[in-house]
Amino acid sequence: MELKDIIKEENLIYSKPKLLNDKIMHYCPGCSHxxxxxxLAEVIEELEIQxxxxxxxxxxxxxxxxxYIDIDWHEAAHGRAPAVAxxxxxxxPEKVVFTYQGDGDLASIGTAEIMHAANRGENIVVVFINxxxxxxxxxxxxxxxxxxxxxATTPCGRDLDRNGYPLKITELIGQLPxxxxxxxxxVHTPASSRRCRKALKKAFENAMAKKGxxxxxxxxxxxxxxxxxxxxxxxxxxxxxFPFYPIGDIKDGEKAGPEAYFQQNxxxxxx
Length: 271
Known about the structure:
Layout: H1 3-6, H2 33-46, E1 53-57, E2 72-75, H3 81-91, E3 96-102, H4 103-109, H5 111-120, E4 124-130, H6 160-163, H7 169-174, E5 179-186, H8 190-208, E6 213-219, H9 223-226, H10 230-244, E7 248-252, H11 258-270
Parallel strand pairs: 1-2, 1-3, 3-4, 4-6, 5-6
Antiparallel strand pairs: 5-7
Helix pairs in contact: 2-8, 4-5
């Protein structure tokens, strides 16, 4: 008996969103980027904002994101996506602007850009892929690399005295008054992918409502950089990444207005 006799063609459901084209992605097997691309395409399609959305992608594994999702894109220098997104959003306030960045980009060379853009409350969505390594350039240590984690530049594992602590950039972003929604998600299971999709949708809805900066971290795998199979990488992420980078919302509200901000500071000083 052939497979076609067991599964009827009319019962097959092909759920690829229309915005995700048929070009073959360049990502490694098991990479989380492809899943996040699909979720982004689904959200933009559901909100019917294809013609209003502009993505900004800098240097990194996702540098060719414009090849896969059929919306307007703008390239940015390494780490500078939030600055580029700020300019696009201010000149075109009717557009929905988002950046798509990795940890070697956003949490390293781009730290100043993201911190100040979020602190100003720029009306953008930031999608932050954290796989704790420089995936594109050879698997070097990133700011988010865990203590003891082996990379190309830490062959004996990340050492606290030599390399410092891993950077929890999302917790820092959550403290800034210009942010409205800050969350950490993953896409390693169907259930986690659904939760990530929901988070992305909320972030884009916030941008449409002019609520300030929304920040969605996606804790991800890098099978090639970690030298693991996709299945092993998922297990390693669950055992090592999630305890240090816990999944869930960090902030959900609106950016602080001048009044609320100064009242809060005054209260803190009085205490």
